[in-house]
Amino acid sequence: MNYFSSQFKLGILGGGQLGKMLLNDTRKFDIHTCVLDPSNEAPCKIACNEFVQGDLMDFDTVYQFGKNVDVLTIEIENVNVNALEKLEKEGIKVYPTSKTLRTIQNKAKQKLFYVDNNLPTAPFSRFAYKDEILTAIEHQTLEFPFVWKSAQFGYDGKGVKVVKSHSDLEELPNVECITETLIPFKNELSVIVARNADGKVKIYPVVEMEFHPEANQVEYVICPARISKEVALKAELIALKASAAFKHVGLLAVEMFQTEDDDILINEVAPRPHNSGHHTIEASYTSQFEQHIRAVLNLPLGKTDSKVGGIMVNLVGAEDYTGNVVYKNIESIMAMDGVTPHIYGKKQTRPFRKMGHVTIVHENINEARRIAEEVKKKIKVISE
Amino acid sequence: MNYFSSQFKLGILGGGQLGKMLLNDTRKFDIHTCVLDPSNEAPCKIACNEFVQGDLMDFDTVYQFGKNVDVLTIEIENVNVNALEKLEKEGIKVYPTSKTLRTIQNKAKQKLFYVDNNLPTAPFSRFAYKDEILTAIEHQTLEFPFVWKSAQFGYDGKGVKVVKSHSDLEELPNVECITETLIPFKNELSVIVARNADGKVKIYPVVEMEFHPEANQVEYVICPARISKEVALKAELIALKASAAFKHVGLLAVEMFQTEDDDILINEVAPRPHNSGHHTIEASYTSQFEQHIRAVLNLPLGKTDSKVGGIMVNLVGAEDYTGNVVYKNIESIMAMDGVTPHIYGKKQTRPFRKMGHVTIVHENINEARRIAEEVKKKIKVISE
C-alpha cells in the first residue's frame, strides 16, 4: 500500500496531547490522518486532515469512523473494543489489536496475562467487589498494607491507592479490583518496545522515573536510567518478552519496578506512545511518535539510540490554581541551554492536570538532571 | 506580551514547505498562527489556526491580513512590501522589516548594500535593460564569461545564468539585472544567524553546499562544513557583520563563496528559515524553525550547537516525470540508520520541483556523507 498518497488514511482514536505529537510526524511524512475525539477543543483538531467529534466508547461512532480508514491506531486505551473487533473482521488493520486492548483495559486480565506468560509481576488477588476485600482481610488471606487498583479505567494514578488500614478502605469505590503485595522498590523503570506487523522489533534504552509522591504522576523521566548494565539488560529482556507475548504492533511501553534485590517486576503496560518516551523527540535518533507510525504502517523501524542524554519534566497544574492557564517563567526556562517546553494547548488548568512537558537534553546526563531541577523550580503552571 | 495565550496571533506570509515546518514549532509552543497563501492546497492549510487564501503581492490582501495579527513574519520574500511598511507604522511588529525586504527583493539593491556596508561580494555591474549589457560588451567594459542575475524575483536558480557568449545572451529576458564577475570558488558555504528584537545573536555552524550542476539547486548540505577553522571563522564573522548591518530580526541565512584563495564573498542572503538549515531539525539542539519563532517573538534564543553531524539531501522531481507524485524506494531509505524523509505534501511532481528533503544524521560526518550518497541513489521522485 502507498501510505504517501492521499488515497491512504490513518485513523487515530483520541485527539489529546499524544495524538497531537503523533500528527507532527504524519505531517512530516504527509500521511493523511483522521482523528476521533469527544471534545471539539481537542489538541488534535488542527493538524489532522479530518476531525470527527464523537464518543470513543460508543460502538457505532467508533465503527463508522474505523470503516473510513485503512489503518486504525489509538492514543488512549479507553475505546470501544467491540467495534475494533468487528473492524478487524472486516479487514481494517487495527493496532494495537482488540485482543491486546481487551487484556490491557482490565487490570485483572492484564495481571493474569503476565502470570500465564511467565512474566514477572507482583503477587496479586482479584476481587469482584469491595466487600470481598473485607472478607479476605477478615479471613487473613489479605493483610495491610497493600496496593488497591480498580480493574477498569485506571489512568494517570487515578484508581490506584496504597491501603494501610480500614479507614483507607472506606474511601474506595465498590468496583471490580485487584490488590497487590506492596513491594519495596529502588526504582521505577520503563522500556518502550517498537514492533511492526512483520515482527521486526527495536527497543529504546531503559529510562528511570521519579514520581510525585502526592499526585502519583511522573515528575522526571531520565534517559539513560542510572542503573547497572545487568539491571538494564534484565529490564530489556522482560520488555521484549512482554512484547512477544502480546504479539503487539506499534509501541508497547513496559513500566517496571526494580526491587531492592534487583529483581524486575512488570507494573503495567501501555500499547501506544507513552509519557516515559517524550524525551525521544529531542534525545533520540527516532522519536517514539515517528516510531509508532512506522510500526503501525509496517515501515522499517528507526534507530532507537540516543544522540544525547534526555530528561523529561511533566508540566502539571499547580495545586492551588484553577482557570485560564498561565505558564509562569516559561521565558526564563527557554533561556537555558537544551531546554524545550511542549505546551499541549489545554486552555484551563487545574491541580495536577497534565498541561505540557519540558525536555532537557545534554551530553552529560548528570548535568541534564541539574538543569531539570532548575526548570522544575522555575516554571509554574498557574491561572490568570 | 503573553505569546502562549489565544489572545496573541502570529501571522505568516506564505504557506509553503517552510511555513509547514514552522508550524510544527508553533504547535509545540501552542502559539496561535494565521497563514496567508494564494493556494487553497498550501501545505500550511492544516496545522495553522487560521488560513486565508489570497495574493501575497496584493497591497490590500496583505494589509488586511496583517491588521489581524500581533507579529508578522514571512516564509517567502516576494510579498507586498508597501503593505508591510504601512503595518509597521500602525504598530504591527514585522520581521523581517519592510526595509530589509526591500533591499533583499532587488538583487541590485542587495549588492549595493554589501558595498555600502563593507561586506565582501563579487564585483558587479547594474543594468536597467538587456540592451545596456550589449552596449557594455561593445565598449569592452564587460567581458565574457559573467554571471547574469535578474534583479527581481530570482528564486531557486531561476533568474541566474552563466553567460559565456552572445548566444547565451539571446535567451535572457529584457529586465533589470546585474552581472557579476565569474569567480572560481572551492566551496559554497552558508551560515544562519538568529537575532531577536533585543539584539541577542546566535549563529549556527558553517555548512557546505553541493549544487546540482544542471538544475542549480542544492543537492547536499553538509554540517559541519569540511573546511579549516580559519575559513569557518572568517565566514562566521562576515555573516555576523551582515546580520548587524541589516539589524534584522529572525533568521538571516548568509550564502557565501569560498574562493580559491580562501577569501569569503557573500553571494546572497535570505531573511527566513532556509534550505541550508533543514538538517537542524534532526542535528541541532534548536531547529532553525524553532529559532525563527523564538527570534521574531523576542524570546531567548536556543542553543545552536549540533548534537550529531547532519546532511540534507533535497528531494526534487526527476527529470522525465510530470504528474501525481510517487516516492520510489522511500521505504528502503527509511530502513537506513539515521535517515528521515520530509515530504512537503505537493501532489504533483515536475522536473526539479522541490518535493521534500531527507536528513541523514550520524556522529561521524563522513559516514553520514556516505549514507547520503546511498539515499540519493535509491530514492526517486517520479509520477504514477
From TrEMBL, chains A, B:
UniProt keyword annotation of ATP-binding present: yes
Residues reported to bind ATP: 107, 149, 180-183, 188, 267-268
Pathway annotation: Purine metabolism; IMP biosynthesis via de novo pathway; 5-amino-1-(5-phospho-D-ribosyl)imidazole-4-carboxylate from 5-amino-1-(5-phospho-D-ribosyl)imidazole (N5-CAIR route): step 1/2
Family annotation (SUPFAM superfamilies): Glutathione synthetase ATP-binding domain-like, PreATP-grasp domain, Rudiment single hybrid motif
Signal peptide: none
GO cellular component term of the entry, any: cytosol
EC number: 6.3.4.18
Superkingdom, taxonomy of origin: Bacteria
ATP-grasp domain mapped to chain residues: 111-297
GO biological process: 'de novo' IMP biosynthetic process
Claim: Lyase is one of the keywords in the record: yes
Keyword annotations of the record: ATP-binding, Decarboxylase, Ligase, Lyase, Nucleotide-binding, Purine biosynthesis
Catalytic EC class: ligase
TM ranges: none
MF annotations from Gene Ontology: 5-(carboxyamino)imidazole ribonucleotide synthase activity; ATP binding; metal ion binding; phosphoribosylaminoimidazole carboxylase activity
Catalyzed reaction equations: 5-amino-1-(5-phospho-beta-D-ribosyl)imidazole + hydrogencarbonate + ATP = 5-carboxyamino-1-(5-phospho-D-ribosyl)imidazole + ADP + phosphate + 2 H(+)
Subunit structure: Homodimer.
Family to which the UniProt record says this protein belongs: Belongs to the PurK/PurT family.
Purpose: Catalyzes the ATP-dependent conversion of 5-aminoimidazole ribonucleotide (AIR) and HCO(3)- to N5-carboxyaminoimidazole ribonucleotide (N5-CAIR). Catalyzes the ATP-dependent conversion of 5-aminoimidazole ribonucleotide (AIR) and HCO(3)(-) to N5-carboxyaminoimidazole ribonucleotide (N5-CAIR).
Protein name: N5-carboxyaminoimidazole ribonucleotide synthase
